[in-house]
Design goal:
Elements (H helix, E strand, L loop, with lengths): L1 H20 L5 H21 L7 H17 L4 H29 L10 H28 L3 E8 L2 E9 L14 E5 H4 L5 H8 L6 H10 L6 E8 L2 E10 L2 E6 L2 E6 L2 E5 L10 E3 L1 H5 L2
Parallel strand pairs: 2-9, 3-8
Antiparallel strand pairs: 1-2, 1-6, 3-9, 4-5, 5-8, 6-7
Helix pairs in contact: 1-2, 1-4, 1-5, 2-3, 3-4, 4-5
């Protein structure tokens, strides 16, 4: 019972923290990490007497072990953020569970427990932490520069909202021209029908189908394969397209970048405030 309670708790906390920070790992990896942390906890509690004063440090150490087993290899800073988020979620879930337990069973044992209570506590802590993170991101976003962006390809147009991002240094390996990174879904209206249908159906990894769609849409001369590195993906490749033009709109003014390149990113770039990342180098070319 001790093992399964800790397994469930660790798995829910790791999953919630990973979702919060958008760190992707397969379910079996997270389950393995949670099981390892739970097994280590049982071994410590049953076979290694320790002072109650050491309990928080031991719990943090075992949590760090489970996270390492579930998510490594990842960059050190990302791992530390994941550890901090999981610890905060654990504290929040513990507080919510205690409150709910006393409300549901005020005259029962102080350690009233159920799987539903565990899930409710974790979800409540996750919701609170996500709300706080969203508020802080919105406050920070107000201080940043957003541009309305229009992308034109063969007469079709897509409109986006781009954040001027100093961390975006992606460039075309052929020309070294800066590249606009955009959410794939936001660029779909500007793409020819064959490629649009392929990407909408999630078949971007089907190389023969992708090449066939590019040929059918006569996009071979526009195609770019853009190597990139980011947190969580030290080696990656983005599909890029040379546009007819990229237009930037801000404060009633419009700036044109003929032949600008857009890279298609499958994952969301924000919670909805923007769907593209504009490199400062692209502004320098105007």
């Amino acid at each position: 019972m001790l093992f399964f309670i800790n397994l469930a708790m660790d798995y829910l906390l790791m999953t919630a923290a990973a979702s919060l920070l958008r760190v992707r790992r397969k379910r079996r990896r997270r389950l393995f990490g949670a099981a390892l942390a739970a097994l280590a906890y049982c071994a410590v509690v049953l076979f290694l007497p320790y002072s109650p004063a050491l309990a928080p440090a031991i719990a943090m150490l075992l949590l760090a072990l489970g996270l390492a087993a579930a998510f490594c290899p990842i960059p050190v800073m990302q791992y530390l953020r994941l550890l901090a988020a999981t610890a905060v979620l654990a504290l929040g879930a513990g507080g919510v569970m205690t409150a709910l337990g006393l409300w549901l069973n005020p005259f029962g044992p102080a350690r009233y427990f159920s799987i539903r209570l565990l899930a409710a506590g974790t979800l409540a802590a996750y919701g609170i932490l996500r709300g706080v993170r969203g508020y802080l991101q919105a406050a920070a976003l107000e201080k940043q520069t957003l541009y309305a962006v229009s992308i034109l390809i063969d007469g079709a147009e897509a409109t986006l909202t781009a954040l001027a991002d100093t961390g975006n240094s992606l460039a075309d390996p052929l020309t070294q021209a800066p590249v606009l990174v955009a959410e794939q879904a936001a660029v779909l209206p500007a793409l020819p029908v064959p490629l649009r249908a392929l990407l909408r159906n999630g078949l971007a990894d089907d190389l023969p189908a992708l090449l066939e769609a590019i040929a059918a849409a006569n996009l071979a001369a526009r195609l770019r394969m853009l190597p990139f590195a980011s947190v969580g993906a030290p080696h990656g490749m983005l599909l890029g397209l040379r546009t007819d033009a990229i237009y930037l709109h801000k404060d009633g003014h419009s700036l044109a970048i003929p032949g600008g390149i857009v890279a298609l990113c499958r994952e969301p770039l924000s919670g909805g405030a923007y769907n593209a990342l504009l490199p400062p180098a692209m502004l320098d070319t105007l």
